Structure formats: C-alpha cells, structure tokens
Amino acid sequence: MPRVQRSPPPPSTVELKSPALPSTTAELKSARHEKKSPLSNLHSAVSDPKLSTFSTQHERIKDIFVNANRRAKRRLGDNPFYDDGESEDVQLLSAITRLFSEFESKQNQKFDSLKSTMDDIAEQNSRIQTSVEFISGKYDELLDRLAAAERENSTLNRKISSLESKIDYLERCSRSATLEINNLPATDSENKESLLGILCKIGDVVKEEIRPSDVSKIYRLKAKTDSHIFGTVVAEFKSSTIKENIIKASRNFNKQSGNNKLSTASIQLPGPPKPIYIADSLTSYGKHLFYLGRRLQKDGKCHSCWSSHGKIYIKKSAGSTPSCINCESDLQKFGPATL
After folding, report:
1. Which of 102, 77, 103, 76 minimizes the C-alpha distance to 89?
2. In Å, how far from its chain's centre is CA 270?
3. Residue of 207, 206, 181 whose CA lies nearest to 196
4. 178-281 to CATH, choices 3.30.70.1820, 3.20.20.70, 3.40.50.720, 3.30.420.40
5. What is the pLDDT of residues 56-79, one digit of tens each?
6. Using the 8-state DSSP alphabet, how is residue 218 labeled?
7. Whole-prediction pTM value?
8. Greater confidence, 53 or 288?
9. How far apart are CA 246 and CA 179, in angstroms?
C-alpha cells in the first residue's frame, strides 16, 4: 500500500522571544541580591509546536545560574583555618582572634622585658643621682674650704710681708753705720790692722779723715769658691754719720777725678790697678732691689739708681724727683727689668 506523504505544517506566526540571559558573574550576583530569578525576565509565550526546545533552554538557564552561584562561593573546606561546621564570618573572626592573641602574648613578653630593663635603668639612675648629690656636696664643701684657705693664705701673706718689712727695717738699722769695700785685693798676711790701715789710706785719698778709734769692726767676708772676685771688706763705724761722710766723699772723688777713679793704684797697693767700690751695707732684700734698679738703669728705663742710708732710690730722668724703692711693685712703674 503506497505511503501517503503529508505536507509539513505551516510555520507559526507567533515569534518566541528568548529571555535575556545574565552574561557576567556580577549580573548573577546582582540578580541574587535583588532576589529576582533570572527567569523573571522571560516573556510569556504562546503555545508553539517547538515547546520542547523552550523547555531545554529553560533548563540550560537554571544550570547556568546554579553553576555561577556555586563558583561565586568559596569552599570553606579549602581554608585550614576554618572548620566545616562554622560560618565564614565566625571562622574569620576566630582566626583573627587567635592571631591577635598570639601577637598580644609576644608583645606582653617584650613589654615585660622592656619594663624590667627600664626598672633596672631607673634604679641605676637613682644610684647615680645619689652619688652625684654626694659628690656635689663634697665639691661644695671643698670649694668652701678652698675659699677659706685662700682667705687665710692672703692674710698670712700680708702678715709675712709685714714681718719681712719689719725684719728688713731692723736689719737696716743694725747696718746703719756699716759700709762695704768691694774688689779690694787680699794678701796672705792680711789681718785687722792691715785692713784698718788700708781703710785709713782710702780716707786720705778721698779727703775724709778716718781715725782708727772711729772703727768698731772691720773684717773680710769669705769669697765664693767658684769666683775670682775678692771677698767684700765690711767696716762698722761707731757713728752712721762717719759712714755717710766717707761714702759721700768717695762719690765726689770719682766724679772729680774723671778716668782716675778710686783704685788700688790710688792707695799704692802692689799689682795691676783695680777699681775699688765703696757702698752701703745693704740687706739681702735691699741688694735684690738695688740689682733690679741697676738693670733698669742699664736698659735705659731710668736715669740713675743709688743707695742711701740702706734704702734704694731711682730717678726717672735727670730733673725728676727721686723715688724710694721699698718693694718690687715700686719698680713696675719704670717697666720690667731684664734679668
């Protein structure tokens, strides 16, 4: 029996529109957040012979949404810090809490160590402060004692200076009638009588009479062993006036004689002529002042320097008033002396 061929049905005039599918994961999340199904955008469709095709598309849409939703969620089992029975927020909070606990424990250990060190430093600083206060007290005490010692030293220096002045004055008084003859040659048979005879000859030369009865003592000081200069002859008179007259006469003789000043040749002593110097018998301090004054005169800082009655006098210029020198500070106004 022959098959009957049927013609296909005419195409449907109703257009089936496919729903707008979410294209990205963000759109899927947005749709889930708005609690709307992606199928809500599907338009109602009329019955069509191709309903099986539409059903297949609907299933495909659901699979896409479920798979996307599953990919958007992280599996909790993959994180070692999370337990399967807890939610993601609770597990995260628990992990953070454990981390902070461990950090706090470490920091507490460091703080305890730091606090112990700071306590040790504070104790050490306290001991240092105590030591500094003790040393400061001792230093203040030492300063007070030093100031007291300086005041005492100043007082003692003034007393010493006063005593030296008094001793020098008494020594000057004891030497008021004494003169010294320097550079007078000595002889092997020298004695008091020979020295007295030389002194009388000097008086005759300078035209000042000297009687043996006017002399109370005459002797020669021991010369220095390392010096070729003769020892000084010291003559003590019974009156300071006689001494002053002899010194004055010898100075006038030297001024009037020019180059023929008083010497060994003047009193007819054997040997080559040697100058003879007659001067006051000065104290040790007076000799020091006289030496400094003569140095000033040699340096041209003063006109003249001499001694009279055991005191030292200096003239700044030829017409100036003589200044009496009692101590070294009196020489400062003439300038320093070269030693």
Report:
1. 76
2. 70
3. 181
4. 3.30.70.1820
5. 555 655 555 445 445 444 444 444
6. E
7. 0.55
8. 288
9. 9
